[in-house]
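Troubleshooting: if your tokenizer reports a length mismatch, compare your output against this known-good record of 223 residues.
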Amino acid sequence: MKKMDNKTLRIIIFDDNANVRESIAMLLSTTDNMILAASYDSCKNLIADIESVKPDIVLMDIDMPQMTGIDAVKLLRTKFASLPVLMLTGFEDDDKVFASLCAGANGYVLKNANMQYLIQYIDEVYHGGAPMTPVIARKVLNQFTKLQPTQQPNENYNLSIREKEVLQLLTKGKSYKMIGNEMHISYETVHSHIRKIYQKLQVNSVGEAVSKTISKNILKTLL
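Known-good structure output:
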């Protein structure tokens, strides 16, 4: 496992399936720079739990009793606007996954996927990515494209040609790894480009970047 800015990421889990929580706990115990800070079987004390644990990443089950993961994300966003949330789902229910992303989740991972993907996705979400399948990415993009442009495309954000190329791939729902493969650059270089894009667009997530890109026609000459 590669180092992530030499920071130990504190992970918190909300999932009513004890086997899932135990599997993730075991995986994190063998992973450098990640620790399981806490795990809960419901979101009944969600805000208090987050305030107490102060996690860097939230892993959130979509289907839970008392409060669904979708409602939990909505509640989280009222208090913790930028806290990364990665949804956990047992099967790819497009509507529920899409609803959780619209509610403010940063990405999702299937519980039956290779658990090593979870480590990759945690890393990606922590660095501002939004891991999701192309089908879900297209739904998200279609939602964003309903926005009416509010600015002419000549507004100057000082994006380099390379940064525009990265941003174009982000708007197509590409993951960091896919962007790196298509542009023949390293995963770390993709991170670097996206950090600069966020700074120039004054945004904090892929969703905000894509929304601003489309609503302001930033890539009109490329898309």
